[in-house]
Amino acid sequence: MAKRCEKQTPQVSFLSGRRFSVYCNGMERKNAANYDESKIKTLSSLEHIRLRTGMYIGRLGDGSNQDDGIYILLKEVIDNAVDEYIMGFGDRIEIKVKDGSASVRDFGRGIPLGKIVEAVSIINTGAKYDDDVFQFSVGLNGVGTKAVNALSARFRVVAYRDGKYSEATFERGKILKQKHGATTERDGTYVEFTPDDEIFGDYAFNDEFVEKRVWNYAYLNSGLTLVYNGGEFSSTNGLHDLLYAEVGDDTLYPIGYHKGERIEFALTHTANYGESYFSFVNGQYTSDGGTHLSAFREGYLKGITEFFQKSYNSIDIREGFAGAVAIKIKNPVFESQTKNKLGNTEIRAWIVQETRAAVDDFMHRNPEIARKLQDKIISNEKLRTELNSVRKEAKEAARKISLKIPKLRDCKYHIEDGPKGENSTIFLTEGDSASGSMISVRDVYTQAIFSLRGKVENMFGRKRADIYRNEELYNMMMALGIENDVDNLRYGKIVIATDADYDGFHIRNLLLTFFLSFFEELVTSERVYILETPLFRVRNKKETRYCYNVRERDDAAKALGASVEMTRFKGLGEISPSEFGQFIGNDIKLVKVNIQTLKAIPEVLEFYMGKNTPERRKFIMDNLIDDVAG
């Protein structure tokens, strides 16, 4: 069904020959009368993947972000290998990444030799529709490897079964050659591919990002050994190992661990503010959580309250909580192709019940841990009471200033508005100059602007009550809606938009320090982003190009000829509204803020934002010297 205009204003429309123009929401729709049989096209499945790449792998990117498409391609191939292990075939997977190409070798059953071409090139073809062959697979849609094939400049697959092999080589999804014969290789499947630079541009794999994914596979599949570029990754204790790797020894009590037939989880408390969760479904990391995570949290709270036989406030129980949960289900329903959020509702009851029972049993078997947890809950309760008095003072002061939050230009839709608000974004800008350009071109339905006066206060080592004594940070917290609980966040994305200079970078670090100190979960749940805007504009009389680094600037200058004009944007306020619109519109470039491990945060913040001035000064000077020497 065609989407109707939400708002229509009477405007002139005219017919002139075969041209017909209609205005809807200020946009001109041309040539509507030319919609006839000749406009209906049928694409092959691989052509559709290449044309609508985002439907299959999400974003493209160049490899500088861990969610970029090249990592999704690698993930799809590894997923198939892990599925073999889950079904009891092969306990070793070899992964190599070199010079922009990747390969994965498993020692499972191997793709049936007579179907090797169809299995990697025809959508809706595969064995994952048969529960007897694959019971707990993420890739139930039969698309994964086909998308890798279609989006690769070169793709090669080899299946080994019972002393025979079958091999097929493709180029951008089209088969080049096929061969088969006898072999001494162990059963299994080998896939190698080179992402297509026509689609991904000048990309590069980041070892750190790949290793993080490989570790997750190891944690979620105890007994499986993965070899990445020669290094071995394996886990004995599953999610217990994962949570320990994230929080380290900085816990109030030893990590609790439970592994059932369909659910596995680990949990503990730390001295940090907020909550931290890591959730998985059939081995897939669900960064946006879903019904399994909410059910796990509910079961945990019920287990605690039933054990202590007291109706503690859930906020006091959850403060400082860190947990990891993984479930296995036969028919996962995800809310997007990239599988970041689970939507199955029928799983809630059994997850709540098993989690509640396991937590209650854990507390009964560990009375000392139970005592420490109760002390933590009581301490949180006292802190919350102290905060309440400070909140009253801050709110009273805020009422005297204005009934509205100062410096906030809100949008119409928010997260609580459902699909309309799931992409809502709030930009945290640096000063009125930058926000002025953005306000005039933003999408008023989904984009909000909060303007900072300048550098915010360094909140490292401060108490949560100090937020209420800082008018600007208090207003920002209220604008985000996270005062009582980060679950009340009003926007899908929090985007830090500062100038690309030293002051802008400093403000960025101060804001990240604020979030990591008090609202860590916003970062771990991947809600916080950095806005990338161009540093240079290169143009001649016919063409204008915007460049994000010196290399792009030089390439643009060379392509446009000798008579080019080059402009260096020193701040966001220097970019005119007419230009800025595209940078927060369809062409927006966002870098997701990621952290490798929770346990590294205190040390990093201490070094960069603490009082270790001599050490930090030496670090800066050493690196400045290195940069100059380079």
What order do the helices and strands come in, and which of them pair?
Layout: E1 15-16, E2 19-20, E3 22-24, E4 27-29, H1 45-51, H2 53-57, H3 69-86, E5 92-98, E6 101-106, H4 116-121, H5 144-150, E7 152-161, E8 164-171, E9 174-182, E10 188-195, H6 197-200, H7 207-220, E11 225-228, E12 231-233, H8 239-247, E13 256-259, E14 263-269, E15 276-281, E16 284-285, H9 291-308, H10 314-318, E17 321-327, H11 348-365, H12 367-401, E18 408-409, E19 425-430, H13 431-439, E20 447-452, H14 471-480, E21 493-497, H15 502-518, H16 520-524, E22 528-532, E23 536-539, E24 544-547, H17 550-560, E25 565-568, H18 577-583, E26 589-592, H19 601-609, H20 613-629
Parallel strand pairs: 5-11, 15-17, 19-20, 19-21, 21-22
Antiparallel strand pairs: 1-2, 3-4, 5-6, 6-10, 7-8, 7-10, 8-9, 11-12, 13-14, 14-17, 15-16, 18-20, 22-26, 23-24, 23-25
Helix pairs in contact: 1-5, 3-5, 7-8, 9-11
